[in-house]
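Hi everyone, sorry if this is the wrong subforum. Our group has a chain we'd like a structural model of before ordering constructs, and none of us has done structure prediction before. Sequence below.
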Amino acid sequence: MLTSWLHLIALAVYFGAVAGLWAIFLPSLSAVDRHEERLKLLARCLKIYNPLQSGALGLLVLSGAIQVTDLKAGYRELFVKEFGATLGLKLLLSFVLILLSTYQTMAVGLRFVRRYEGGESFTPQELESVVKRLRSSTVSLLLLAAVTMWVGTRLRG
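Answer:
Right subforum, don't worry. Here is the predicted structure as tokens:
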């Protein structure tokens, strides 16, 4: 029971962080006029978003694995017959979600923050490229997370 609550809370935090990045933070960047202020705002927000998103995703993976183990123990030999195809699809979607989330936080977000804090300068085109990659990966993550959640509801027996 505790694992289910942990999974649900981690899911809410993950989905909330990704949705918040898309609906609140990224649109607010366009409201800031000065280039330096946009850089500062992006770096500050990503320093909060990156560990929050990654940590919530890690808890989702661990609590999900524990729940599948419990479900497998309950169904025994019927587990593969009842849930095999659905679980396979959910694991595939989860794997792609983890890869895309890692790309967003590590390859885009963390790289930008490290460069900014290292004192490197960014042209407006470079900043726009980072924001564009964040925006497209965020939309993809939201869609993929929604589909993965829906498939996950099919595993409850």
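For your construct planning: The chain has a mean pLDDT of 92. The first helix runs from residue 2 to 29.
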